[in-house]
């Protein structure tokens, strides 16, 4: 009797563990992790390489990430060459065919995203130009729905048995986006067409969604630090156009933005560019809650 | 006279760097025009809707890059003190071959220091697996093997202008090259830290310690790399290397080496500040035709600090014996100032004080400009 009980326990443990085995997901940025968790629910175990307060263009490809990737079932990337400086050496060393480009577990979250700023020709003299278009598309919450759809499709391929669960989670996520977006748009509607200056060209999707007007950048060219001549130009521009808001990102020092703000009696608003940029931003929805709140406080 | 030459040379270099910094100091008048244009563009820009934009056409072309290395130096060694020359051009092609492997080719057009002529050479040609089970990776072809940490780097990827003296003395200007097979495995361990074991076998190219052998005497190399994340901002890498290969005495040379690298980079502002300390050492034991073994040693320790987004300073101390020669050694102290306007251009000024107990001492100042075009594969951490 004891023998049968022991065998039963072993069988239950074996099947139990396989039933509950989670899909291991590695994402490049925390926003993709947050959306993957929303769609995958408790079927997924997600890890983000970059933190929310880190510049996603410049992440160090530490060998410890290779270890994570070597065990991953799925890899989700922003794509559009945003991570070209650090993802290729990690993927090349991961020794995991599932997550290589073309593999079942490779997810380019940018598929089907309506891209902005796709250049017709490219010259490095223009700075860090992304040849496929501006890659900061997750900063439009409507694009979050497309990202979620891409993740759902990949999850369904890897784990077709839980298709309905993923679909249900996707619908829940999409409904939440639709509901929240109305709230955010309503809150910012009063400030539609407010002119702003931003540090780096990473807000066009946010601008389009919420009706801001980005007039210029503190960087003279993408990726080139602010120069005295550029700051002088921005100060003149802000005075002439009566622009009072400068949007900074957590990973750019605020020195240049503060200098300009002092000269024009303006305000520097540091918005989150990703989930976990600040402790209160725990999910994709928190990111927009935080940014909308910060903008409202600055504009009032 | 020499002093004036040095001052002139340094003046030119500093002017060049300052010119890079000030490159964007356009006049206010220009900005007015730019503003007008910007305003017009803003007014004319169509409302961006959710209409999908066609992406750039996909291509199966490999990533292609060309990297130039130009140098100017002043040295107190010998009678010809000033040199200015284009040192080398590296052309690289790399791509995935198919779902199972990737390939990398690197051609070098190097300058002969004696006659100034350029000759082309194949530095690297490899096929590397990407889908083997058990965390295995196999590379075959011509490559720079994993003996020490610095050997696998190409000169443009190293922080300092001059490669460590131990590499130059024991091997060659750019280290060891070999043709053969490299097998690498991620070693599973209960602490779940990154541990990679490399085993390499093949024929060495002739250098100061090794020959390509006369019979079936191959070069064998083993390297164990351990990597620890001490915190979000700091990491520690510790490696051990060993090799045995044929030498010029038609005997064998055995070497062991270690490397320690500590890096600090604040995650949030990692593009502004960083600090690296790297130390490596090796012991060489060369069997001679007379049946004796000659021991010699080499080591270096370097510090590098990024003081702002584009500027780095560094210092390095080298001690390097000569393979197969007892009691002869170089002791070198280096100072570095590096300015990187972008990822595609590196300007560096390096001072070296070289003390040798087998030849005259000398000092030198080297200016190097590295500039790259095309798509160059990102370097490993």
Structure, explained:
The complex is a heterodimer of chains A (300) and B (381). With 300 residues, chain A is of the alpha/beta class. In chain A, 46% of the residues lie in helices and 11% in strands. Chain A contains 10 helices and 8 strands. Chain A has helices at 2-20, 30-40, 63-70, 87-93, 141-158, 163-189, 204-210, 228-241, 255-264, 284-299; strands spanning 23-27, 44-48, 74-77, 106-108, 195-198, 213-217, 245-248, 267-270. In chain A, helix 5 packs antiparallel against helix 6 (163-189) and helix 8 packs parallel to helix 9 (255-264). Residues 10-19 of chain A have low confidence and may be disordered. Chain B has 381 residues and is mainly beta. Chain B contains 3 helices and 16 strands. Chain B has a 16-stranded antiparallel barrel with strand order 1-2-3-4-5-6-7-8-9-10-11-12-13-14-15-16. Classes of the chains: A alpha/beta (300), B mainly beta (381). At the A-B interface, helix 3, helix 4, strand 6 and helix 8 of A face helix 2 and strand 8 of B.
From the spread of the alpha carbons, the general shape of chain A counts as globular
Number of DSSP-assigned strands of chain A: 8
Q: Rg of chain A from C-alpha positions? A: 22 Å
Strand content of chain A: 5-15%
Radius of gyration of chain B: 24 Å
Counting copies of identical and different chains, the oligomeric state is: heterodimer
How are the elements arranged and paired?
The complex is a heterodimer of chains A (300) and B (381).
Chain A: H1 2-20, E1 23-27, H2 30-40, E2 44-48, H3 63-70, E3 74-77, H4 87-93, E4 106-108, H5 141-158, H6 163-189, E5 195-198, H7 204-210, E6 213-217, H8 228-241, E7 245-248, H9 255-264, E8 267-270, H10 284-299
Parallel strand pairs in A: 1-2, 1-3, 3-4, 5-6, 5-7, 7-8
Helix pairs in contact in A: 2-5, 2-6, 5-6, 6-10, 8-9
Chain B: H1 2-21, H2 28-44, E1 63-75, E2 82-98, E3 101-111, E4 118-129, E5 136-143, H3 165-170, E6 178-186, E7 194-204, E8 219-229, E9 234-246, E10 252-264, E11 274-287, E12 293-308, E13 311-322, E14 325-342, E15 345-356, E16 362-374
Antiparallel strand pairs in B: 1-2, 1-16, 2-3, 3-4, 4-5, 5-6, 6-7, 7-8, 8-9, 9-10, 10-11, 11-12, 12-13, 13-14, 14-15, 15-16
